[in-house]
Predict the 3D structure of the following.
Amino acid sequence: MYEFTYHKAASLDDAAKALAANEDAKLVAGGMTLIPTLKQRLAKPSDLIDLAAVPGLKGITEEGGGLRIGAMTRHVEVQRSDVVKRVIPALAALAGMIGDPAVRNRGTIGGSISNNDPAADYPSAVVGLGATVVTNRREIVGDDFFTGMFETALAPDEIVTAVKFPKADAAAYQKFKNPASRYAIVGVFVAKTGGNVRVAVTGAGPCVFRVPEMEAALAKSFSPDAIKDIAIPEDGLNTDIHASAEYRAHLVNVMARRAVAACA
Amino acid sequence: MADTGSPAIGTPVRRREDYRFVTGQGTYTDDINRPRQLYAYILRSPHASARIDGLDTGAAAQAAGVVAVYTGKDMEADGIGGLPCGWLIHSKDGSPMHEPPHPVLASGRVRHVGDPVAVVIAETLGQARDAAELVKVDYAVEPAVTEVGEAIKPGAPLVHADVPGNVCYDWQLGDPAAIDAALKGAARVVKLDLVNNRLVPNAMEPRAAIGDFDRATGEHTLYTTSQNPHVIRLLMGAFVLHIPEAKLRVVAPDVGGGFGSKIYHYAEEAIVTWAAGKLKRPVKWTAERVESFMSDAHGRDHVTHVELGLDAGNKFVALKVSTLANMGGYLSTFATCIPTYLYATLLAGTYTTPVIYAEVKAVFTNTVPVDAYRGAGRPEATFLLERIVDLAADELGVDPAELRRRNFIPTDAFPYQTPVALQYDSGDYFSTLDLATKAADYAGFEARRQEAARRGKLRGIGLATYIEACGIAPSAVVGSLGARAGLFEAAQVRVHPTGSVTVLTGSHSHGQGHETTFAQVVADGLGIPLEQIEIVHGDSAKIPYGMGTYGSRSLAVGGTAIIKAMDKIIAKGRKIAAHLLEAAEADIEFKDGQFTVAGTDRSKSIGEVALTAYVPHNFPHEELEPGLDETAFYDPKNFTFPSGAYVAEIEIDPDTGRLEVCNFTASDDFGRIVNPMIVAGQVHGGLAQGIGQALLENCVYDKATGQLLTASYNDYAMPRADDLPSFSLSTHATYCTHNPLGVKGCGEAGAIGAPAAISNAIVDALKAHGIRHVEMPATPEKLWRAIHQHQLAAE
Amino acid sequence: MQKTVSLTVNGKPVTATVEGRTLLVQLLRETLGLTGTHVGCDTSQCGACVVHVDGEAVKSCTLLAVQAEGRTVKTIEDVADGDTLHPMQEAFRDNHALQCGFCTPGMIMSALDLVKNNPDPTDREIREYLEGNLCRCTGYHNIVLAIKAGAAAMRGAATQAAE
């Protein structure tokens, strides 16, 4: 790790100011991705701004029929939350599939979506449920938040404060894990709300994406068979030593069908 | 052969070492810190093949906290030698193998990603690592070659300019004319090409080394993560640093797993020992995991063509094997003997195949050196043999278990001389196969296959038998085959004046539980309680000598050395007792800790005898020296030959290719078992590594650049708890005939037998899809492709 | 940049001067000499470094020492009651759930975290919970047995205490 200056932000403003003051400053929430990255010297921030003590960023509340989850809420809290299990059980299940228990005890939803790892789980839920990302400045529609590999719509000094998830009639997440890292080789989040269906895919491409053909077919008939023959083009999908683009494209279909089946 | 009836042997005694480990009191090398200690960071090559045109350490040397920066030139200036290879192999034509230099720090060229280039030594590790970024290396990157098949092609980049065709040796065992004739005469010849995938051993404790130098005595001390401290002392002292043994102490304290990877003498050990001497301060180095991936010796990496000939009665008549074995960029300590004498000599397996021929080309590539990893040669032999036997059964339409039984060496045929040099002393392959197939309900499998099919799953069952050669020794034999060291073991048994016993053993425990098993052997031999026995290992300053622990040799060779030393203790004790009891020595019997005049109730305990030996007021000085402390060196007559039969049952999800190991049943013959709990643990661990090889683990290099793509646990798939089933184990013992305990060894069995059992189960599950072989690791994508491509063809 | 950090480790208040980049595991091992917590990888996967922070299992290799300011840390050295092993430690010994011992402290700390939340876990739950703890020696077979036995012993002790 390169040496850096550590700040413990006392407030959101404090954090935003520190972030704005230096373009090489970085926020740390749970640190579950950032600290391993720093340890491998893959990043060299001048300053590290810890959000742990910032008030008002933690907690899960039922809001407008859906959920508001504070950015510093840890995966374990979402996984075990009775409110989440009642309102959007698929979200609790997804949180329980992130990393491993010790990682879930530290990792946060805000950290996960701000980092936007192509194989992270949460982006599929944010897009799949049509969630809204709340920042210190504005609200960003989930569909617009994730802009590319490790890229988001966040301005350099913008900080995620919460995510608002609308309740779905039915939702499920299916993950095919990388045998080594246990990240998603492919993860598919399917949500049905009224006549509207969303299918969001993580792991397969450089960034989470929706599958409009599947969504349309499922809106007509919400069953696994309805999407059986909808093939995902492999162009632009990830290829690595664990899975080719062709295999990932195939898995998207399988995981999507299984997610639909799990919605029942 | 009957057990002694002693409760000490055959009992699952809880491990005496566990208290310190479960409370965090173990002392591993990185837990040790010496006063005024410095930290070393090793700058490694980021390139697979490059000429070093310039190396500027000036800025790094000036950086905060830096005490020294050394390169290969500094070591050359001090006359430091290269890392030695311990086994000389001769090619078919009688010429000795190519043995290019293996500099400790790169000398003008790097040959694999991770090759050490310079060492930065600083007050803190952070400072050393920061400064390492200031070392300027001018690399002229050259084409690299990582695969054996590519490396032997004409025009391939040469890893060493003076090794033509990258071939280290081209070796054979057997008669090429005889094998061709035997195959010609066969009623059927089954052929297969297969790969034995490259693995990274991945002991959970990364390697570490601390060099220390005592200015007062001139003694060097190396604390290191080693399976054999005396071997390191010999190799490093004699060949690299030229320090006499009397001035070099090597300590291997608690070691967190080895699996072969901690046998070898590594560059870092020489670097810290040498640097500590130069700087007159202790120097510590601890590997990061990424360094482990790119500097610990790797395992396996064979490409093989095999042909099995059968007669009309389904008896094996000929086996021909051609293998390309990857050596990596340099020869590691025992690299050269693995694909030869620990591989081809095992190709008879459990069968009576009369004619066997093997040829092996060892090939240099721009990869990390390859050496012994759990099983070492024997897993490779077993995998190809058990795959080709299964394939033969499939082609013949006979049950794989039946084909094996038909060709097993009969139980009454021991000692059995194989056509590949080894003589098996004992075994009973029928019994272990029966035990395994019964426990696995092999006969009832078809119903389970159908039940799985109703759930949309492809279920398969696979079996494998194995033989291995353990207790690696005897010196005379290995010497004739090219070993440059003896392979014996030493032990000292010291009976203290009040009857407690210290046993100093040259074996080294890095998880095997010697402190318990060896104590059981001593408790049995001397008739004293376990609590009075202390087992000491891992320090060249305490222990007379040692060849260390690998190849499942500790109990068979090291345990026997302890018994030989105990024999001497008892012999001397009888003399002392005879004197004390005023009887003839010939009349003194020793049993359960008591020296007794035969046929009387007159006796002396070993404690009384020991006290007399150390307080010799009433002692036969004219016949004996005082003291009760004996040393023995034991060099066995033969290897030992554990064997067994494994049954794997798996299920594949055809939609994703995801595989689940449903059941795994193992039946082993380890000879006599001293501690069944520890033996079962060894089997579990071996099975996990074998299943890991079959399904998960793969060391991958980028073909174009030679970059190591699997350099962390993000990419190298280690078996985790949810990848594995619980195991069903049984044992059947035929005793080793040439060591007093009758033991054979159990450490490697699981890793040897499991890959073939799993692979055979996979092919069984996919047989209906026309699949005859799936390369390891059988990843979900590979399995999905196997199934999917067949479906496409059929559609 | 040097920082002063104060926290409670194994029941004792500790103040130390660290760099911003100092990891909790470095503070524990190098400054405090608590070498029972191990480092087996660089990528937060092996779990040899698991300790409890404010009662929860955390990878001490993935937490800066400064992030532990004001928190309560418990390591393997503080699990036994004096010379009396904790039932989970005893269960690891009874079931031969360790060989080289390197992963063991992290395994035990993880096992305690599991049992705290799930006092009677099934084999499957144990295997899934251990996703973040690698062992290369045991094949996990005996670790699963040990955690089950340890959990049972802890339930027994809890029942006894309640009576």
Q: What stands out?
A: DSSP finds 20 helices and 28 strands in chain B. Chain B touches chain C through 59 residues (CB under 8 Å). Confidence is low (pLDDT under 50) at residues 1-5 of chain B.
